[in-house]
Amino acid sequence: MKIAIHQPNYLPWIGYFDKMDQVDKFVILDTAIHSKSGYINRTTIKTPQGSLVLTVPLKNKEQPINELQIENNVNWHASHWKAIEANYKKCTYWVAYKDGFEKLYSRKWDNIASLNIALIKHIAMLLNISTEILLESDFQLNFGSNNARNVNIVSHLGGDVYLSGIGARVYNVESTFNDRHIELVYQDFKHPEYPQRWDKFQHNLSIIDMLFNCGPETMEIIRRQRI
Question: Can you give the pTM of this predicted structure?
Answer without folding.
Answer: 0.95
